[in-house]
Design a protein that fits this description.
The chain is α+β, with helices and mostly antiparallel strands. The protein has one domain: Phosphatase 2c, domain 1, CATH 3.60.40. Helices cover about 30% and strands about 25% of the residues. It comes from Parelaphostrongylus tenuis (Meningeal worm).
């Protein structure tokens, strides 16, 4: 895990963790900082908003964070496009640019507004809520990994062999997972489709939140709750996810 935050402001609490891959520590930091700005500064989410309004705002802000990151590598993508006119001569420069635009990060974001808890998951992190009686509630039903049966099925429905997709199977950043996936012969037939779902679970009391880290679609989940304490724990995961 590269970055983890807990911010409580004006009745809105944000817990989040970000884990970069392919050297993506700087991507994780950018996404973290931008997510904080989106939630608390740019048309901030407030506790007076309805559940649907918060869900819509979170998804919109998550997409904005993704867009803002890719704007930071626009020049690199343009330079790469020019160099690809003569890939053999420019092989070293193209390789350096490829390494830069392959950087990515997972994101696990939990937002508490009044008695509702919202979860955005993009990657292989696992969120757990601990009740006062020490029972555990899993906040996200899936991890985006090609060991996950439902994720494998999603990839097959996109005409992608799950075995050729590197973990995590969903991420922020890593341009090769987006508009350059056509360069991979195994992924040329891929079709893209947004995946949005949510559920509500009621009556959780006196619990703590723990996120374990083991990514471009959105999975929002809203839980009804009365109290929540944030505690990002850096101990090894309960589930051995690589």
């Amino acid at each position: 895990m590269d970055w983890a935050i807990h911010i409580d402001e004006n009745g809105i609490a944000l817990y989040a963790m970000f884990c970069g891959f392919n050297g993506g520590t700087d991507v994780a930091k950018f996404v973290m900082n931008r997510m904080v700005y989106e939630v608390f500064k740019d048309h901030p989410i407030t506790k007076s908003m309805t559940v649907e309004e918060v869900k819509d705002a979170l998804l919109r802000k998550f997409r904005t964070v993704d867009m803002r990151y890719f704007q930071t590598i626009d020049d690199d993508l343009t330079q790469r496009l020019v160099l690809m006119d003569d890939p053999e001569t420019n092989a070293d420069d193209i390789s350096a640019l490829n390494a830069k635009i392959r950087k990515g990060t997972t994101a696990f974001v939990v937002l508490r507004a009044e008695h509702d808890l919202y979860v955005l998951n993009c990657g292989t992190s696992l969120g757990l809520a601990f009740r006062g009686d020490r029972s555990v509630v899993r906040l996200n039903t899936r991890v985006h990994d090609n060991d996950d049966p439902e994720e494998c099925e999603r990839l097959r429905n996109l005409n992608v062999n799950p075995l050729v997709v590197h973990r995590p199977t969903r991420a922020l950043g890593d341009y090769f997972r987006r508009d350059l996936f056509e360069e991979n012969k195994e992924l040329k037939k891929t079709t893209r489709k947004h995946d949005v779902a949510y559920c509500r679970v009621s009556s959780f009391h006196n619990r703590s939140l723990v996120a374990y880290t083991a990514s471009f679609h959105f999975f929002p989940v809203v839980f009804s709750c009365t109290s929540l304490t944030g505690n990002f724990n850096r101990t090894p995961p309960l589930f051995d996810i690589i």
